[in-house]
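User: Assemble these into one structure.

Assistant: Restating your components, then the assembled model:
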Amino acid sequence: MKARRLGTTDIEISPIGLGCMQFSGTRNVARLMIRPIEEETATAVVRAALDGGITWFDTAEMYGAGNSEEVLAAALKECGVAPGQVAVATKWAPLGRTAASITRTIGDRLAHLGGYPVDLHQIHMPTGSLSGLPAQLRAMAALARAGRIRAVGVSNFSARQMVLAHRVLAAEGVALAANQVRISLLRRDIERDGVLETARRLGVTLIAYSPLDGGLLTGRYHDDPELTRNAPVMRRFFGRRDLSTRGLARTAPLIDAMRRIAAGHGVTVGQVALNWVITRYGDTVVAIPGASKPRQAAEAAGAMGFTLTAAEAGELDELSR
Ligand SMILES: NC(=O)c1ccc[n+]([C@@H]2O[C@H](COP(=O)([O-])OP(=O)(O)OC[C@H]3O[C@@H](n4cnc5c(N)ncnc54)[C@H](OP(=O)(O)O)[C@@H]3O)[C@@H](O)[C@H]2O)c1
């Protein structure tokens, strides 16, 4: 599958990137959301992603207070990747901080990334900062103008907030490159809440996070409902409707269709889920599945290697509505 442009920038990315929250380390709150992995495993995961054709990685300050950034950089180095050979996206954590901390903490981001540049710097969420969004966006624009980051993005922004971000950045001579939001076969809110339409109009890339719904869309919980007991605490709590017996029964027809479609292409159910996300919306949406095993990263990369027929895409569309 062809590389895509990140927004209107000259940064090229594969339609699938690797989500690196799984590199947060075992001693922080991220473990409530994902299955954290050791550094050695992370290196194997990054190697599998690279081998499969993944050319960019998404991390964040919040993923273990820089731990994920450090582990990613170490893994890239171990894999022989030179700075600039892949793209790296990270995020600033707004909670309880003013916009000035964007400027103050960019040195930490770059230090944790150990020589790999910040290709995309994102405001992790629109709430929680002690400064307004315009001040945060102007601080990001200043970093871009100073060449400390290549592009500016946001995350979890609504359509209205995207318009604001685009306007404030444009006044500073900087483009809004991306909005990172939750998108999957079971989370299609962007089609209704204006985010998709706004992204297309403004030339902004949407980065789909949790595109596998934490593994639900691989069919593993349908295969073995007992596995839901081992899901990370927050997944069990926030996903309790989806992971309950009734929830799994509700999505079973979709998973059954995905199994049939997957078998026809010689791929897995999870690959069908990822392929749908990166093709359903044309070039606008790219996805960043997470992986706690090299095999999962290889599978994620393999989702770029086939094409769903129009009939298959239509069936998935219907069943996931
Ligand atoms: N901007 C934000 O607010 C935000 C929020 C959440 C996430 N993110 C980003 O999005 C990335 C991905 O999100 P996510 O990790 O929450 O969800 P996800 O990509 O939907 O799910 C990833 C999990 O699915 C399971 N999985 C992956 N491949 C599999 C396979 N082939 N077979 C079976 N299970 C498989 C693994 O679970 P196990 O490890 O349990 O096996 C893996 O950790 C994160 O790493 C992060 O970079 C951003």
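The first strand starts at residue 4 and ends at 5.
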